[in-house]
Structures are given as C-alpha cells and as structure tokens.
Design a protein that fits this description.
By secondary structure, the chain is of the alpha/beta class. A 6-stranded mixed beta sheet has the order 4-5-6-1-7-8, sandwiched between helices. A two-stranded antiparallel sheet has the order 2-3. Strands 9-10 form a two-stranded antiparallel sheet. It starts with 22 loop residues before the first strand and ends with a helix. The model has no long low-confidence stretch (mean pLDDT 90). The structure holds adenosine-5'-triphosphate and nickel (II) ion (NI). The site of adenosine-5'-triphosphate has 14 residues, from α1.
Amino acid sequence: MPRGRAAVRAVVDVSFDVRAGECLALVGESGCGKSVLASALLGLLPANAETAGHARLGGADLLTAGERVLARQVRGRLAGLIPQSPAAHLTPVRTIRSQLEETVAELTGVRGRAALRTAAEQVAARAAFPAGHLDRHPHELSGGLAQRAATALALAGDAPLLIADEPTTGLDRDLVDHTVDELRRHVDDGAGRALLMITHDLAAAERIADRVAVMYAGRVVELTSAGAFFGTPGPRHPYSRGLLDALPDRAFAPIPGLPPPLDALPPGCAFAPRCAFADRACAVTPTTLSGVACHHPREDVHAA
Ligand SMILES: Nc1ncnc2c1ncn2[C@@H]1O[C@H](COP(=O)(O)OP(=O)(O)OP(=O)(O)O)[C@@H](O)[C@H]1O
Ligand code: NI
C-alpha cells in the first residue's frame, strides 16, 4: 500500500479445501473479494499486496512460493486460471491458434509443428472453441468465444486445479449451461481434477458444485454441501438465505442494503447492518462453527 493510503483487507480468515474430483463454488456479491482470493492463490496480486497464511497445492505453498516457482511450476501446470475478463488476457495481435500452440509448447512435452497444431486443436475442442475460428484474433471474437479461448488456454497444461473466475458472465442462459456442463465434465472425467468456480450466478453454482462457499465482505461465512445449500435444509447463514431468496425463481426478494466497502467494515459481524436477526452479540466477529460464521445460524432461530 502506498504511504498515506489505508490498506484494504480484501480477504480475511478464509479457510477451505478443494478435493480432487470436486467442484467448490465460491459465491457472493460483487466486490466481496472472490477475485482477490483467486489472484492471491496464483501470485497475481499487485506487487504492493500482502498475503498471509497457507495455500497448499501438490507440494507447493502458493502463498509463500516465490515468483520463479509460481511461474515455472504453478501457473498453468498445477493451477489453470480462467480469468474474469478473458478478452483482456488474450494477446490482441496474435491469433488464438498461435497463442494456444505457444501455451501447449510451454506447458507440455509436445514438440514439432504438426504435433503442436494437433494438440492445440484438441485443447480448443475440449473448451468447445470452434476449429474454424482458431485463426482469428481476439477482437474478432464474441465475448462467449473469447471466454472459450481463455478456457482452452487454462486447460492446456492439464493442471490438477482449475480456477474459473466468473466463467459465465455475459453469456445467455443456454451458453451458461453449456459452459458449466463442460467444466463439470472436466472434473468428472476421472483424472482427479478439482475446480474452484467463482461466480455470483447461483443457478450456475447449483448446476455444477459439490460444495458451496459463501463469501461476504472478504470472509467465507458459510461452507456447506451443495445439496444442503440448494435443497434441504437450506443454508444456515442469514446472508446465504438472503442470496437464495433474491433469486427470481424463489422469493425474488433482494437483501436490503448494500455490502460495506472493504476499507470501512463495521466492527463485529459485517453482515449485521443488513441482517434481520442482528442483536448485541453481533458486535463481536463471529467464529466459524460447523462451517457457519454467524451468531444466529438457522437452528438457533428456530429454537428461539
Ligand atoms: N489493488 C487493489 N487495491 C485496493 N483495493 C483493491 C485492489 N484490488 C481489489 N480491491 C478491492 O477488493 C475488493 C474485492 O474485489 P474483488 O475483485 O475480489 O471482488 P469480487 O468478489 O471478485 O467481485 P466481482 O463479482 O465484481 O468480480 C473490492 O472492493 C476492490 O475494490
Ligand atoms: Ni471478481
């Protein structure tokens, strides 16, 4: 942080794991810290950012590894990232084919022009990127196709962990379902890959996730199985319930108020100012018990 500017604690007290063959959906409103978390895992935060803690993947600790290790062993190889704004991550002056071939050459043992061409076409196909568009430049692609190109690049190294940051933004519903199903197939094909899917699209999360982590104001406030979250008994944190109730096919009732700016968090539970159950206990930051960080998780409300 530059001198004289307040540090923003964008992500605090986050603890979760993603297992081989599993998809964990990380959900929460815009600005709650989802992308900061993804960037931290891959060492992609701005140089003045500070991180603390551990993030283990294979034999590496992603938060303490140096840039050399991250660049040579982690990014693309252990963890592939589908970035939030794919168009911004594609090189504008080169065709998708040449970017894919270069990435395949860098991340895999494939050598030779013909073999690289075939491998690039295969990885494009896995991301449902049409072969007929491979010779286009990024600016000639629709948002959906740029998304697929970025997905192909993220898949090229066949990394055991894929982090997809809002991979369905801007797509219409059919394409959302299609993209989500492709990502799910990537996890299900028996190779033991894991997927961290960052999204504020709860319908997409329901379609793909095994477990759901809900983030609010930089913290994971609930972590539970997708079945319990979307089905019965439903989420336990009032914020999670509010997110579900806001859906058009549920109560269609938005959560009142707005999330606090991360540089001006209220003391105690950051959700309390928007919470119908808030009381004096909420002046203290809740600890996480059985996957929920709340003084009034649902059982308590019913018991009262
Ligand atoms: N380099 C930075 N310096 C200061 N604040 C930052 C920086 N990067 C991100 N932030 C702040 O961190 C917060 C979290 O941002 P982040 O992009 O992780 O949100 P998000 O949950 O991914 O939201 P969205 O759904 O809009 O992508 C935001 O309030 C943002 O303003
Ligand atoms: Ni984001």
